[in-house]
Structure formats: structure tokens, C-alpha cells
Amino acid sequence: MDEILKIDTIEQYNNLFGFQTLHPLVSLVDFDAPERQENYRMTIGFYGIFLKETKGCVINYGKSNYDYDDETVVSFAPGQTVGFTRIEGVPPKSIGLLFHPDFIRGTSLGQKIKKYTFFSYEANEALHLSVEERLVVTNCLSIVRSELQHAIDKHTKGLICTNIELLLDYCMRFYERQFITRQNMNLDVLSRFERLIDDYLDSDLVEKNGVPSVQYFADKICLSPNYFGDLVKKETGKSAKEYIQLKMLDVAKEYLLHPEKSITQVAYKLGFQYPQHFVRFFKRYEGITPSQYRVSS
């Protein structure tokens, strides 16, 4: 597991595990045979979405790993490093859909692929499926499989892309359901987020490190930035960045009530490198400049 393989193409991946390449840019792979149960780490050059059907392996992404007890979906994007570790004595069973960015270029799916933020979620943020949801996923995969087994013609690309897009849209819906069913956990994350923002703005970190970032708080809460951002948006209706900035705005207003603090001092106190950036930030939300706000308060 020390070596990281560089797997740029679908054919390279299929050759590594002994799968047949039916299409150079798309593949559906089944991990259900002993000869395919080796450990690996690789940096991939394509998208992958795996339905994990039984307990039998640890899939890791980045610094996280997760031992799945039930049916889950994990997703990977080009450039990510992923790994698979077999659990001794338990045969894994999973289905993977792989598709190269070149395959979806110029299609509706290619135009909206970035909206599927779950491709950048960590492994421990996997999608856990109900029985009904699993049927939807397997139905989409079955259609793709059927198309790959069919002779390639002028309809192949459109039909496969349509069904991949349908699958990803369903995954978005299922993730939204998961955010709702984990609401207590989500509220705990929001409470921690609130405390972390307050602690950051009350400390010297803001002057040392500047305006707080979404990445900073996601790291502190041990979530990927995308998952964290989607969770905050689902619970508050605001993006994580906007949520941070509104908290900064509240603090700015408190500072501006103290006339001994100049606008420049307030700007530096909030982590802005240049006072004019603070003025633009304040006016964007309040419609007036900090000086005008101070006069009217």
C-alpha cells in the first residue's frame, strides 16, 4: 500500500483488475471475485461512483477511512487519491461506474458535473441508502451496463450520459434526505461552527491569518469543505462563506460603536489586509459605508 499508482485511463484500471474494456471512456466494474481483492492506492484520472453492497473492505480517501456496515455510495473525482483495503476472510462486493471527463465533454452532464459536490466528500461522508434507494441506483447502473454490452452506435453516448446524469441527480436527492435524517448531528455541527467563528474572531488568529475561510472551519470539524458547505446551506439557507461573513458583519458593527477605533483599525481587527476591502465588504451587506453607519448609529 506504500506505492501510489497513477491510473489515468479506464483501460489502465480495467487491465489492473482484469476487467474487460467494452468502451474506452466508460466502464462498469464488479468487485465480487477473490482475484480482485488486492489492496491498492491510486491517483485516478476519471470519475468513479461505487455502490458498496456488503461489508468486506475499507475504502479510504485522503486522510479518512470508513468501514461500511451497510449499503453505501462513495464517489471520486479526477486527481483524487483513493485506496481499497481488503478485510481478511470477508469477500467484498461492490459495483463501480467509471467515466472519463472526455466522455461527458460537451454534454448536459459535462456542463453540470461541478454541481455534484459529493464527488469531493470524504469517505466517512458516504451516502447510506435505504432499500428503495438502492433499487433506484442499481436500476440506473443496469441500464448503463446494458448500453455498454450493446454495440456502440450514435445513440450510445447520449443514453449512457443521460443515465449517469439521472443517477447523480438521484444521489443529490438521497444526500438531501440524509442531511434531514441526520438533523441532530447537523445541528451539533452548526453549534460547533458558531463557537469556532466566535473563538476565531475573538482571538489573535484573525489578525495573524486574515479573514477566516470555509476550509479552516471544515478542517476543525473534520468534514470536507464541500460536505460542510452543503450541510450549512441545507440547515441555514446560506452558504458557509456567507454565514461567516454575516458573523463578521455583526462583529464589525460592535467595533464601529466604539469611536476610539478607526475604520482602519476595525478592518485589521477583522483580518482584512486593506481597509478599502473592509469598506467594500461592509457596503455590500449594509448598503452604506462603515463611516456612514457610525454616524447613523
TrEMBL record:
It comes from Butyricimonas paravirosa. This is AraC family transcriptional regulator. PROSITE patterns: HTH_ARAC_FAMILY_2. Pfam families: HTH_18 (PF12833). Keywords: DNA-binding, Transcription, Transcription regulation. InterPro entries: Homeodomain-like_sf (IPR009057), HTH_AraC (IPR018060), Tscrpt_reg_AraC-type_HTH (IPR020449). The keyword Transcription applies. One of its GO terms (molecular function) is sequence-specific DNA binding. Signal peptide: none annotated. SMART domains: HTH_ARAC. Residues 195-296 form the HTH araC/xylS-type domain. The keyword DNA damage does not apply.
